[in-house]
Amino acid sequence: MKPSGREQFMGLLGDAVRSGSLEKLTLGKPSGRDPTLANLFVRPVTLKSGPRLSFVWRHKTRDVTKNHGAEDALRLLDTLIGAEFLDAHLFTATQSVQLETGPGISRIRLKARAQAPSAPRGNDRPKARPIAQETPWLRALGVTDARGRPLAAMTDKFRQIEKFAEILGHLLKEAPLAQGRALRVFDMGCGKGYLTFAASELLGDRAEVCGVEARPDLVDFCGRAAADEGLAHRLCFRLGSIAETDVGAVDILIALHACDTATDDALAKGMAAGAALLVVAPCCQKEVRPQLVSPPVLAAALKHGIFEERQAEFVTDALRAQLLEWAGYRTRVIEFISTEHTAKNTMITAVRARPGGDEATAARIRAFAAFYGVRRQTLAARLGFNLA
Question: Which CATH architecture has domain 136-382?
């Protein structure tokens, strides 16, 4: 008798686990015994105790992670597939396999996975891109068309995604990131998730990336896109504000274009969570502007609102950079992307480098704040740093 679809699937799964060719396994369509359960994602990890399979049980409001040895994992999956979960997707380097089960149904579909084409030679070599234009999630987010070409209205957004990926790629080589476990990455105030997806693409299965956003429609949209593109095992989206979200331990924290003091909230949250790398692009720096006392030599120039606004931005971001240095981070302030593509183009990057609390740096910060008349600033307050 020909084996059922489920029996074929379990045989292929066992072969993939034992041979080490398993890339990931996704279980969906939970049977409903636990109404909060959405999916189960399984992937191989290497721990100090040796190779394991990491099970991430994704519920509506939380994730639960457990690690199992290969044979224990296979026994557990045998009880889950077709019972607790009606759909399963298996991915290896050479094929993807989908199993659909239900009353009277046990159907399996096998599909060969395309192999990467050989690199062209000489002048035929295409431009190396940190994020390929043909990447499926770019199309899912409305950045590119079906042929992988940026849509006219999204050209600037695609350049922003590329530049972010380029910068993050360099920073990943510098930061003292943990080894032997999945990195935890949070993108605070992620919006439509363009750069959240880019971070996940760059890090791959090396990291679990979570976008935090206060608008429910965007959280739902990004979550569906991640699931549709088979990325939900390493990319999720959570409803919440920057200030109120509990992120736990974090390796990398990103906050691009978080408005006014939300950037400070994100930086403080990242430092408190032990982040080795912080990447922020500030926006709408309003807090410091009413406090500014113009030096007499600048008073005539700063009566013009646009100059006053730019000075407020400079003072705010310069304070942030110096406070990060005081806290023990090696800090850079760079142009994120040309002003041709976005007016909000300042980026602050910070790599954890040493213990904080240097008194010489603290004295320099206080002198800087006094020169401009700044008495309070949110990041300083979050760090317990007295500007007076």
Answer: 3-Layer(aba) Sandwich (3.40)
